[in-house]
Design a protein that fits this description.
9 helices, four-stranded parallel beta sheet
């Protein structure tokens, strides 16, 4: 639900107060209620089954957490956004910040850059007398909404004040766009394996800044897998694929000297569009990290390769229509290196 705007009730002191009260209810309530629900139904029972590490950190530590049981914090882009948002506040308060991202095991793909966020298994507290597990989720689609950012930061600060040895935050909270790229790059650099793959693909496509990118987020439209959203009847899928291919052809007509990196969550579509000689497709299976817990390392690796390769394009395009999901993945990738980002309509 969007923030109330241009309301006649905002005029005058009483109207302003009513406006603030309504927005406070709309923004604070779902976040706080979800924390109560997930703590009671999932987190506390989960933690009670685990044993404390032998070398639990003595100083108060904030840990961004992902476990296979916690699917509610979204996909890779959502979680990276949450990581950066929480790190930003920890940095302001000079609080130690660590990361647990399982079962994907983030260290296989991203390594600490300027800040060491790694915590050993034996340093993690699970005893709920010593640790406060909590959720901080995003319920409003507009990630540029400053009021939403204010509310989430206010709640985060209240969590960080709690008198526990560790605060474990499960989150996809938003962060300021201008902070995302610098803080992400402060936290992360590609692992050796990831960097080797990036070097290879950059050599094949022509190098940084020499190509544009085009992203499609079909979800289960084309019947590739189950994830949510509409599923097109089989008899309608071919025409839809042709429309998507035509969108790429039109984009090439406007940028005839650039190769086009095409990323999508549909193998069916990628196998068709890669037949265009100016299109570059990174091979590999596409999975959603919020729904897939048992993929191998190379399968997960593709999402990170896609993300960095998008960030090296001269312009990042997201293709949209009323059926496709409005993905934040290419936008966040563009922020990593401050490259141009545009949204275009499906032809």
């Amino acid at each position: 639900m969007p923030e109330l705007k241009n309301s006649k009730y905002r005029s005058g002191s009483i109207g302003s107060l009513v406006y603030k009260l309504i927005n406070s209810v709309l923004y604070f309530t779902p976040i706080l209620l979800s924390n109560l629900k997930f703590r009671k139904s999932l987190l506390l029972p989960l933690y009670n089954k685990k044993e404390d590490g032998k070398n639990v950190c003595k100083e108060k530590t904030i840990v961004y957490m992902v476990q296979k049981e916690t699917t509610f914090s979204g996909g890779l882009s959502d979680r990276l956004r949450g990581i950066v948002g929480i790190y930003a506040e920890c940095k302001k308060q000079d609080l130690p910040f660590k990361l647990v991202f399982e079962p994907l095991h983030l260290q296989d793909y991203l390594e600490p850059n300027q800040y060491n966020w790694i915590i050993g298994e034996d340093e993690i507290a699970w005893n709920t007398k010593d640790v406060y597990p909590c959720t901080l989720l995003t319920y409003h689609a507009d990630t540029n909404n400053r009021y939403q950012h204010f509310v989430q930061n206010t709640i985060l600060k209240s969590y960080l004040r709690k008198p526990y040895k560790q605060i474990h935050v499960y989150s996809n909270m938003i962060c300021k766009d201008e902070e995302y790229g610098p803080l992400f790059n402060e936290l992360f650099k590609p692992s050796v394996d990831l960097q080797n793959q990036l070097d290879y693909h950059l050599s094949q496509i022509g190098g940084r800044g020499t190509y544009i990118s085009c992203t499609f987020r079909f979800r289960q439209l084309l019947g590739d897998f189950k994830e949510g959203g509409d599923v097109l009847p089989e008899q309608e899928r071919e025409a839809y694929i042709l429309r998507a291919i035509h969108t790429v052809e039109k984009l090439h007509g406007e940028n005839p000297t650039n190769r086009i990196l095409v990323t999508a969550d549909s193998g069916t579509f990628l196998n068709r569009v890669k037949e265009l000689d100016y299109v570059y497709v990174i091979p590999g299976e596409v999975v959603h990290v919020g729904f897939t817990f048992d993929a191998n390392k190379q399968t997960y690796m593709k999402s990170f390769v896609d993300m960095y390769m998008l960030s090296y394009a001269s312009t990042v395009y997201l293709v949209r229509d009323e059926l496709m999901y409005h993905s934040g993945f290419p936008y966040r990738a563009a922020l990593l290196n401050s490259v141009e980002y545009k949204e275009i309509n499906l032809s």
